[in-house]
User: Fold this.
Amino acid sequence: MSLMIAITAVVSGLFHVVLFSSTVLLGASGIVFMMIVLSSVAGMKDGKIPLTLILVIIIYLGGEILSVGSKDGIAHISHILGGICGAAFGLPRRRRLINF
Assistant:
């Protein structure tokens, strides 16, 4: 879990520095989004995508995608990258467990 948190923090931090170098990144909201998506992926059974994962992607990540570029002081790209990291950590692991 610590490794996933560290990777998510580094990925979102690097993207933020590259895309928005004039602003400061503060907080762990990207890591929270990673854990939200990761917990939704954990609900997979028999290779079926759970409804919670679909709703999280549509509601939370969809809202963040629509909010990118707004001047509200929130690092929406960190939320999006956290969700992508959560899916990247959870989906391959679930596939390996299903195949055994």
